[in-house]
Amino acid sequence: MTSIAPPARPSGRPHPASLTRVELTWVEKQIENWIRFGRVVEDTILDRRRRVVGFAPGGVFAFVRWSANDYGTVSSHIDIVYAVVPGAAYTTLPFVRPGGDILLHIHGWPKVEKVLQAIDAVETIGIDPADAAPDHWRHVHTRLTVGHQPRLYTNERHQAWLTRRQVRS
Predict the structure, then answer these.
(1) What pLDDT score does 3 carry?
(2) 2-16, 34-48, 99-113: least confidently modelled range
(3) Could you tell me which residues are beta bridge partners of residue 99?
(4) How many CB atoms lie within 10 A of CB 29?
């Protein structure tokens, strides 16, 4: 079954039906769901503790989920997700509608912290993590999953990604 993307809006903004939406919750020291990076194109405040943000098709974002109880951290996760284009296959994720192409999925605070450091390293060289090569985030996922240190993202790797992307277009 093929889906037809909604028509582009005159403003150049994506059609609301095509957005990937993420529900964020913040209950201090209990539940903290937040976006680490990504270009938010829609932001809706539901109440004092919850809001929903939307990402355009093709956007990349990092979604962090953390929860705790009286005894400490219960769970921590980070997902780096490619927002799907209408009609494309996707994987479901908690709090993400409809879902996305998961480039990285890590759980456990020590590994989540290493992903946050990898994101910081990309920013340190002056690149927005949302613009980094999707393969880099897959690489970080694979290396951390098996307990190895991921390679650093470099300007040379970024230029190679930009060239590959341009050739594909």
Answers:
(1) 38
(2) 2-16
(3) none
(4) 10
Between 1 and 146, residue with greater pLDDT: 146
Amino acid at 7: P
Residue at 102 is within a domain: yes
- Give the CA distances from residue 79 to residues 6, 74, 76, in Å, rounded to whole numbers and listed in that order: 27, 17, 10
- Would you say residue 5 lies in a domain? no
The answer to whether position 145 is within a domain reads yes
Provide the β-strand partners of residue 110: none
Burial readout 49-74 (b: 16 or more C-beta within 10 A, e: otherwise): eebbbbbbbebbbbbbbbbeeeeeee
Query: Is 8 part of a structural domain of the chain?
Result: no
Burial (CB count <10 Å: 0-12, 13-18, 19+), residue 30: middle
Whether 126 contacts 158, CB under 8 Å:
no
- How many domains is the chain partitioned into structurally? 1
Indicate yes or no: pTM above 0.70. yes
Domain span at residue 82 reads 17-168
The β-bridge relationship of strands 20-27 and 50-55 is: antiparallel
What pLDDT is recorded for position 90? Answer: 95
CB 133 within 8 A of CB 158: yes
Query: Where is average pLDDT lowest: 51-55, 66-70, 115-119, 140-144?
Result: 66-70
